[in-house]
Structures are given as C-alpha cells and as structure tokens.
TrEMBL record:
This is DYW domain-containing protein. GO terms for biological process: RNA modification. InterPro entries: DYW_dom, E_motif, PPR_At4g14850-like_plant, PPR_rpt, TPR-like_helical_dom_sf. Pfam families: DYW_deaminase, E_motif, PPR, PPR_2.
C-alpha cells in the first residue's frame, strides 16, 4: 500500500537515509517509475545520500522497465559518489545494460571487477550473454563462474541452459543438468522447465520426459515444451496423447498449449479432431487470442480447408504478420496462387511488412503463374527488408526467374548466394533443363557434387528431365542407376516417367515397356502420359492404344488419354479412328481443357484461343497473321498439316494451323511491343510442331527474340533457332 507508506513517511518527525531508501525501494518494487525517481531526487535535495541499496533498487526498476537513459544517469551518479566499485551497484548496472542490448558496456563493467564477483554478478552476465544471442560466451562465462568457485543457483541455470539450447549443445546441457542435481536444484520448477525446454529442442525427448516425471507439480510450461518437441520431431500422435493427458489431469491450459496441438493436427491432416479442438478453444475462452487464432488458420490451411481458414482470418480484429503469413502460405501450398498474390497485395496495403516466409511463398506463386513483374517487385521488397540474404527467399527467386525464362537473372541470384543447399542447386539444374540447356544442367550437377552437396529425390527428376530433352539417353540411364546404387534413393513414379519419356523420345519403345514391367508399383498417370507423348511423336499407334487404355482405367474423366490417342491417329492420317475417339470422349462426358496462350503487355494479361476473334484488336491481329504467313513462306516455311486435328481439305488444314493461339499471341506481340523487346508467350498445353517451326522462321524474318513457355518447357527462339534444338 504505497499511499499509506507515503503518509506514514510524511508524518515521521525525523527522517533518515534509511527511511528514504525504504520508501524509494518500495515504489521501485511496485514499478512506479515517476514516483520512484521523484523520491530519489527529493532525497538528495533534502541532503540525504542514497546508499548502494537505494541505487540497486532504482537500477532494478530500470532493468525491468528498460529505462536505459535513466540507468545511464544512475551510472553517472554512481561514478561521482564512488559507488561504481560496489559489487551490488555494478551488478545492477550489468543487468540493466544487458537487458537494454548494451552488452559491451555490461561486459566492460564485469571485467573491471577484479575481485569480489559474487554469484549474482556472474548470473547477470551469463543471462546477459544469452539474452543478447552470444551463447558461446554465456557458456564460457558459466565455466568461468565454476572455476571461480561461485555457486550457481536457480536464476543461473536457465540462462546457461538457454545457451545450450540455442547451440544445440546437448552434451554440455547434460553436464549442466549434473550441476543442477549436485547443487540441489533438481526439484526447482523454474529450473526443471528450462531442462525440459533444452532437452526437447535438442531432440532428446526421453530425457525431457524423465524430467517431467520427476516433477512434483504438473507444470504447464514444461508440458507445453514437451508437446512442441514431439511435434517438431514428427511424433504427432504422442503430442496429442500428451494433450489428452493434460486435459485429464485438469491442468490449466494456456494460449501456448493449443497452437502446438493444432500444429500436430495439421501435420496429421486430422480434420475431425481439428474441429473438436476448435470447439474446445472457443469453450475455454481462447478463441480471441491472436496466437491461438493464427494456429487455427494455419491448421485449416494445411488441411486444405481454405474457406474455414479465411473465415477465421476475416474474423480477426487485429491481424499480425503471422496471421497473414499463415493464410498466404496456405493458399500458395494448396495451389491457389492467384488468391495468395491477392492476399499479399492486401497485406501490403494494410501496412504489414512481409518476412522471409511469406516472401518465399509469394515468390513461389509468382513462379507458378509466371508473374515476372510482380515477382520482381517482391524481389525489391525483399532487398529493402533485408531478406535477400535469406536462403528460402533466394531459392524461391531462383525458381521464379528460371520458371519465367530469365536464366541470366537466375544465374545472378545463384552466384550472389552466400549459402547454397541442395534446393538451390536443384532449382537451377531444373531451370537449365526447362530452358533447353540440358548440357548445362549436367555440368552444374558436377559442380554440385564437387562442392560436397548430395543430390536428393528432386535433383534426379531435374537431371532425367534434362537428359530427356537433350537426347542424352545413355547419361540418363546412368543417372537413373546411380540413384539407388550411389545415393540410396529409390526411384519414384516421376523418375520412371522421365525414363519412359527419355526412351520413348529416342524410339526405344521396347526398353520403355521393359522398364514399365520392372516398376515396383503400378505405373501412374504421369508415366502413361509420357509414353503416349512419345507414341504421338513416332506414330506408334498400337502402343498408344494400350497406354491410353491404361490411362483411362486410372482416371476415366481425364481428357489427356483421349486427346493424345486422337492426335496420334491424326498424325498418321487415320482420321476415322481419330474421330471415333473424340466421339467416344464426348459420349462419356469428358471435357478437354481448351488450349490457350497468353502474354502480358503493360501490366495487362491478354488471352488467346485458337481462331479467337474476341480480342479488341482482332482485325489487326488477323491481318498480321496473313503478313507473317506470307513472309515466312517466302523463306521456306511449309505448313505441317500432320498437326491438323480434323479431316478437312488441305486449304482448311493450313488455315486452321495459321490461327493457333500461340501464333495469334506472337502476332499481337509484333504489333504492340517495341523492337528489341522479347515477345514472351505462355501456353497451357504443349506447342504443336507446326507452330514450333513457324516461330523459328518468325524470329529470323522479324529479327525478334520469342520466348514460348508451354506445359512442358521453355522454347527460346532467336535467329531461326530454338533452344531445344528441335528435340522437345
């Protein structure tokens, strides 16, 4: 009761330094900053000299409140009054400087104490180092304390255990545990919870559980740490079991308990229990806690329940960075890339600055949608925010530029990276492969191995893709064999699909079929589609029929099996069979994804369909097409009617080929893009052979660089040559 103490003080007939110090200390203990310092100055004005205990109380208040400037004033007063050599005062200064991120000043004061360092002084310094992230020095300081003969206490051990945790130094942490037992602090809840935290974060769950079992009281902080440890190591069932045990023991769950359990449910994709836990959150009154709401958003997003995730997000009164990040990454990871980018723009308008997690996610979405302009803006934001040195952001930038056909930018990002992991190397290997530089992919792989980085499952997909699209059959077979023999990686459906594509492209159908027979699992749709594509290329109708039948059995509503078989028939002139397949497809209600091409001009996306007359510039585009066809025919272009899909007269086939969506897009690019600027076109299905040939002629006749990305890879046309060297 500070008011009563003040009244009693005012009535005291004879005040002393002790009564003044008592009053100042009392106000400091209850955190009254203004009154404490007012009394401290009045005390001196009245002629009473503060003692070292008075200064200690005031410094303790500064430490708790983070009052650095006030502490510096007290420091100056201590120097003037020669209290700067008093261990009690110096310890208070060390504590406040350390907690105000002025560790150098704290260290300087600590080093000046030649003799008389007590356990409080050592503890302040150890905790200061840990608090400021200098964990190695925290451990060294603890060792110095032991060598000095000072005994650690319950306030010392959490600081050094925190350092062990940060450094993942389980060995030294176990030694500290021994000191705790020997010192008689093994029953202290504060110390026990620090031990549990250290063991769980260092991956030793069994030791953590033994500490919990030895506890006389059920400490919710320790149980929370145990649950977090189980979730991080993938033991979701154990985490849920611990939560149920907490609930059965009637432990007081807090806002830190629920997020960990929700993370466990998210990793298990357990929707039923997710709803149950959400209900419990609401009943227990934690529904309004931002930390818990963010975990719920994250859980629903990871379970692909984006509607529930968005409703929770929309309901939040205060949305922090984690709220935005949970929802944006959820949309991105579930393939809803447009929504992810829209949310990111909303987040920026809201004034929330992105961190490396959300920057990485939206860059990945930009890569998937080939949104280069927005991706470059996000790259600029990352640089301004200091996230350009983040490994995850750099890896996403690599994928962005490679997916958008800007290999020179991808190379630049890669070369500036201070740290590279297997994802970095793999992203560029795949980037080279997709952009028609398969040989460069293999050279980069050799550099990766030389640097000591081991390939993973995805790396070999990139290598096999590179070999397939560069016609490197022998190298591809060698990589496929080395997966299991050299690296212990079991080939998956994607690897088999690449191998079937590799063998099929080179016309080795018997070897491709033999490989299918050796697969340890039933071939999936990707494998059969690769075989169908090869059959279309070489006109292997019989094998195409078998592959199409297998594909229809896997997914009767997938239009690819019908379309590719029909195209194979068309390529060899079997028009009746082709028409029969299309009628069959129609009778079963299977719908084909319509082919379309698009390009971005001045921030606006223009979409084109085959023979499309819906564009505002249709007349100019069709006139340009006539001009293009005339000019490229003059230098040798001959329409390849084998890519016509309908049995009509020769002139009709040629006209149909002339107005394919990618040709319309290129014509529009020639009309509206200035000379010197590349024409970049994106197509949702594979480019046809006739359009591929036409693009080469257009690039030569008009002196323009054309970059066409289809569903399979990039084609860079320049001076009449394509980067794929016609092997695609």
């Amino acid at each position: 009761k500070p008011a009563e103490a003040r009244q009693l003080f005012e009535k005291t007939p004879k005040r002393t330094a002790i009564t003044w110090s008592s009053l100042v200390s009392g106000y400091c203990k209850i955190g009254c900053e203004v009154e404490s310092f007012q009394l401290f100055y009045e005390m001196q004005y009245e002629g009473y000299r503060p003692s070292q205990f008075t200064l200690g109380s005031v410094l303790r208040l500064c430490s708790i409140k983070g009052l650095l400037s006030r502490a510096e004033q007290i420091h100056g007063f201590a120097v003037k009054t020669h209290f700067d050599t008093d261990v009690f005062v110096v310890t208070g200064l060390i504590d406040v400087y350390a907690k105000c991120s002025r560790i150098i000043e704290a260290e300087s004061l600590f080093d000046k104490i030649s003799d008389g360092k007590n356990h409080v002084t050592w503890t302040a310094m150890i905790n200061g180092y840990s608090l400021n992230g200098d964990f190695v020095r925290a451990i060294q300081c603890f060792k110095g304390m032991r060598e000095n003969g000072s005994e650690a206490n319950q306030y010392t051990f959490p600081g050094v255990l925190s350092a062990c945790t940060a450094l993942s130094n389980l060995g030294f942490g176990a030694q500290v545990h021994g000191c705790i037992v020997n010192g008689g602090f093994s029953a202290n809840v504060f110390v026990q919870s620090s031990l549990v935290d250290m063991y769980t974060k260092c991956g030793d769950l069994s030791s953590a559980w033994r500490v919990i079992e030895s506890m006389e009281v059920n400490d919710v902080i320790s149980w929370n740490a145990m649950i977090v440890g189980c979730v991080r190591q993938g033991f979701s069932d154990k985490a849920l079991s611990l939560f149920r045990e907490m609930h059965s023991k009637d432990m007081k769950l807090d806002e830190f308990t629920y997020p960990s359990v929700l993370n466990a449910l998210a990793s298990k994709n357990d929707a039923k229990n997710g709803y149950s836990l959400h209900s419990l959150v609401i009943k227990s009154g934690f529904g309004s806690y931002t930390l818990v709401s963010n975990a719920l958003i994250d859980m629903y997003a990871k379970q692909n329940n984006l509607d529930s995730a968005y409703k929770l997000f929309d309901f939040l009164v205060e949305k922090d960075l984690i709220s935005w990040t949970s929802l944006i990454t959820g949309y991105a990871h579930n393939g809803s890339h447009e929504e992810a980018l829209k949310l990111f723009c909303e987040m920026r308008v809201n004034g929330t600055h992105p961190d490396q997690v959300v920057a990485s996610s939206v860059l990945s979405s930009c890569a998937e949608l080939a949104c280069l302009d927005l991706g470059q803006q996000i790259h600029g934001i990352a640089i301004k925010s200091g996230h350009d040195s983040s490994l995850s952001v750099d890896n996403s930038l690599l994928s962005l530029y490679a997916h958008c056909g800007y290999l020179e930018y991808a190379d630049r990002v890669f070369n500036f990276m201070k740290v590279r992991n297997v994802i970095s190397w793999t992203a560029l290997i795949i980037g080279y492969a997709q952009n028609g530089k398969g040989v460069n992919s293999l050279q980069l792989y050799d550099q990766m191995i030389a640097s000591g980085v081991k390939p993973d499952y995805v790396t070999f997909i990139g290598l096999l893709f590179a070999c397939s699209h560069a016609g490197l059959t022998e190298q591809g077979q060698s990589f496929f064999e080395s997966m299991s023999t050299n690296y212990g990686i079991t080939p998956g459906p994607d690897h088999y699909a690449c191998m079937v594509d590799l063998l099929g492209r080179s016309g080795k159908f018997q070897e491709a079929e033999d490989l299918l027979g050796k697969m340890p699992v039933v071939p999936d749709a990707t494998v059969w589609k690769s075989l169908l594509a090869a059959c279309r290329l070489h006109g292997n109708v019989e094998l195409a029929k078998r592959a199409s039948t297998a594909l229809i059995e896997l997914d009767p509503q997938d239009s690819v099996s019908y379309v590719m078989l029909s195209n194979t028939y068309s390529a060899v002139g079997k028009w009746k069979e082709a028409a029969h397949v299309r009628r069959k497809m129609k009778s079963k209600g299977v719908r084909k994804e319509p082919g379309c091409s698009w390009m971005e001009v001045n921030g606006r996306v223009h979409v084109f369909m085959s023979e499309d007359r819906g564009h505002p510039s249709t007349n100019e585009i069709f006139l340009k097409i006539e001009e293009i066809i005339t000019r490229i025919k003059e230098v040798g272009y001959v329409p390849d009617v084998s890519f016509a899909l309908h049995d009509i007269n020769e002139e009709g086939k040629v006209d149909g080929l002339s107005y394919h969506s990618e040709k319309l897009a290129v014509a529009f690019g020639l009309i509206c893009l200035p000379l010197g600027r590349p024409i970049r076109v994106y197509k949702n299905i594979r480019v046809c052979g006739d359009c591929h040939t036409a693009m080469k002629f257009v690039s030569a006749v008009y002196g323009r660089r054309i970059v066409l990305r289809d569903s399979n890879c990039f084609h860079h046309f320049r001076d009449g040559v394509c980067s794929c060297l016609d092997y695609w």
